[in-house]
UniProtKB/TrEMBL annotation:
Signal peptide: none annotated. Residues 104-172 form the FlgD/Vpr Ig-like domain. Required for flagellar hook formation. May act as a scaffolding protein. This is Basal-body rod modification protein FlgD. Residues 1-23 are annotated as: Disordered. The lineage of its organism: Bacteria, Pseudomonadati, Pseudomonadota, Alphaproteobacteria, Rhodobacterales. GO terms for biological process: bacterial-type flagellum organization. Belongs to the FlgD family. It comes from the Bacteria. Keywords: Bacterial flagellum biogenesis, Cell projection, Cilium, Flagellum.
Amino acid sequence: MRAAGAPAPATASDTGTAPAASGFSGGDFETFLKMLTTQIKHQDPLNPMEGSDFAVQLATFSGVEQQVRTNQLLEQLTTERAAGLGTLAGWIGREVRTTAPIAFDGTPVTLDVQPAAGATEVQLVAIDQHGREASRQTLNPTAAEILWDGSSTTGRDLPAGLYSFKLVSMKGDEILKTEAVGAYARVTGAELTSDGVRLTLPGGASTLETEVTALRDPA
């Protein structure tokens, strides 16, 4: 009971004082900021908030801000990853032309031969998985897709394994250009890596998306 004429005790609704920071839950960054600002504006100047209490609320405020930003970042990363995984499905079952090593198991491999302009002779060089020249053969200096059957320089078939190819374009004795040759292989899998999209090819081969120079449906 209070004396007549005595002022009524202040309440949270009278002063606009926000609930304690420890009770803050389910809100967001802007809500918490408004609550803290209102509390500071309406506190009794003759009985201000203790410095330690104010420090606790500021610390809570900072923690809430960081949590909101972390949640936003996680949501963004989840959305981007889901979108990225969705694009991987489009690679499966397609044929890609890549300059990365591809697997040879006795079945002819389709190569895309593109001689340099003015070449009178071209040499196709096959390189094994150890970086050694496995075969070299002379081709007509015309652009075309050819089937490489794994024949070696000695006439014997090359063993199964991973091979890459290069084309040496010549005019007489002059080498005009040496460049990688694209080989076709079917994609059997795909994954997101720190280097980008990596596509899985038959026989243990793989290629990065950046090494792919063409894409098509299997014949």
